[in-house]
Amino acid sequence: MSGNESLLPTYYQKPFPFAKLLKKYVPLIAISILLTLSLLCYVFMPQIQSSTDFVQRNWPSILTDDTTDPSSPSTTTKARVYKNEGIKSIITGDASDGKESAGDVVTSGVKAVPLPSGDDPDPKVRERRDFVKDMMRHSWDNYVKYAWGHNELKPVSHTGHTSDIFGGDSKLGATVVDSLSTLYIMNMTDEFRTARDWVATSFDMSAVNADVSVFETVIRFVGGLLSAYGLTNDAVFLQKAVEVADHMLPAYNTQTGLPLALVNPKTGKAKNYGWASGGCSILSELGSQHLEFVYLSAATGDPKYADKVTKVRQFMDQMVKPHDGLYLNYVNPLTGQWGGEDQVSMGALGDSFYEYLIKSWVQTNGTDKLALKMYNEAIAAVDKQLVQKSAQKGLTYLAKLSYGHLEHKMEHLACFTGGMFGLGALHASDRRTKDHFMALAAALTDTCAESYGRTATGIGPEAFYFTETAEAIAINQYEKYYILRPEVVESYFYMWRLTHDQRFRDYAWSAAQAINTHCRTDYGFSGIRNTSDVHSAKDDVQQTFFLAETLKYLYLIFSSDDLISLDDWVFNTEAHPLPVLRP
């Protein structure tokens, strides 16, 4: 039986009594039907075509069969095509006129390929990686059990926790979003599926009617979602990233284009912290949204995100630096002038501004020349003015500059610089520069390891000093705490990948054991109030960055180099890997 004849009513299958009459009018009826269909196509086809173009531009995985099962082994997209010269100019550091057609930027349609297992051939190394994975499972399982949907877990009280950076009492599931890439990389497929489904059905930034940190929202939420998209090609992550980013854009509506620190997602009102040098923007925050917004423009074809951060970087480049190339910690977004406090820091308030300069060069596959220029100028000034050696054992550290005077104190936050200088050395143009900064990277990482080794717990404090009587230790009681920060193990990760010197793996293993011993509770992992006390009280907060960063870096240290290769991925400052963009 041909066609769908059997589906017709029986009376249409029998000879029609007026066959001759029907035969006479069949041609006329057929012509009428064709004319009607043509008219309908003329009216509605533009709308249909518009919808098709939208899908092709924004959700290429749907049309190219790139969609992957979230529970299957990890996958990654390695190839993207950027036909639009406007977007290409943004990626290479030139300004865009904002007139590009979004449809010109598309993904290549190359199917995602599975990530390697990351198994090291040494069984001892694999055992240590499993140890770290167990720490992640303990953190995640207890969050799911006791704080699901809340931003964080209180691992002593075993209940939910939040903070002002997430909009106070809002339930944004910050731990869910910040853990996505770690769960995926660790091949925790069931947990990843649970997290993915929650994001798809329950995550809603628009419901928050309170101030949230623009910086923290971009690096944790936008970065986490984009990383998950880059790893899986699952369109739901890109859609949610767009929604969150759009809620952050009002922060950029200033006279200079420099973003404000806080925004209310529901009202769109933005402002700065009152305590920040009279309402200034913070250097690390205004400069650390570049990786996320450039990738978002590349993934969606909408240049508005990259335009925002590119203009910020161009503005900062043109500012006169008061200390021979060093950037001050505060900038007034209304006047475009430096804030009133003459301070320079590679730790709090400054840190990731410098980090994103070299990482933008990496992200764009070595084409963002402005970022590289700014990085080279900045680190030359840092090397000349802030790099110091201790009097006792000659430990290398980074001092802070305050009103022209050095403060011989290094923060845990500044320990990321070992990794940054190492990554920069990898991309240096000449052997002398490469060798110098690789040596500096190793020396700074060794110093941060000393700050861990000189405490009773084997965990480094929030800040440590270098004086005539103190070396790499905390002096003040209020600076002896540890809140599960990742910066030290972050540098261990980079230095291991770049040198394969066993000491960096050894440092990492010591840190993992110490954290597991002193920070683990029955219900997760908590910060401790005194790293010099083996019986220290807990602070009862399992920070989202512990799952996003600390555990991810430790896991990758005990994995083979091809798992999230530095050739194909660049980590944002929350340790979310984003694909290197290759035009």
UniProtKB/TrEMBL annotation:
Pathway: Protein modification; protein glycosylation. Ca(2+) binds at T573. Its EC number is 3.2.1.-. It is an enzyme of class 3 (hydrolase). One of its GO terms (molecular function) is calcium ion binding. It catalyses: N(4)-(alpha-D-Man-(1->2)-alpha-D-Man-(1->2)-alpha-D-Man-(1->3)-[alpha-D-Man-(1->3)-[alpha-D-Man-(1->2)-alpha-D-Man-(1->6)]-alpha-D-Man-(1->6)]-beta-D-Man-(1->4)-beta-D-GlcNAc-(1->4)-beta-D-GlcNAc)-L-asparaginyl-[protein] (N-glucan mannose isomer 8A1,2,3B1,3) + 3 H2O = N(4)-(alpha-D-Man-(1->3)-[alpha-D-Man-(1->3)-[alpha-D-Man-(1->6)]-alpha-D-Man-(1->6)]-beta-D-Man-(1->4)-beta-D-GlcNAc-(1->4)-beta-D-GlcNAc)-L-asparaginyl-[protein] (N-glucan mannose isomer 5A1,2) + 3 beta-D-mannose; N(4)-(alpha-D-Man-(1->2)-alpha-D-Man-(1->2)-alpha-D-Man-(1->3)-[alpha-D-Man-(1->2)-alpha-D-Man-(1->3)-[alpha-D-Man-(1->2)-alpha-D-Man-(1->6)]-alpha-D-Man-(1->6)]-beta-D-Man-(1->4)-beta-D-GlcNAc-(1->4)-beta-D-GlcNAc)-L-asparaginyl-[protein] (N-glucan mannose isomer 9A1,2,3B1,2,3) + 4 H2O = N(4)-(alpha-D-Man-(1->3)-[alpha-D-Man-(1->3)-[alpha-D-Man-(1->6)]-alpha-D-Man-(1->6)]-beta-D-Man-(1->4)-beta-D-GlcNAc-(1->4)-beta-D-GlcNAc)-L-asparaginyl-[protein] (N-glucan mannose isomer 5A1,2) + 4 beta-D-mannose. One of its GO terms (cellular component) is endoplasmic reticulum. Keywords: Calcium, Disulfide bond, Glycoprotein, Glycosidase, Golgi apparatus, Hydrolase, Membrane, Metal-binding, Signal-anchor, Transmembrane, Transmembrane helix. The active site is at E216 (proton donor), D351, E462 (proton donor), E487. This is alpha-1,2-Mannosidase. It comes from Medioppia subpectinata.
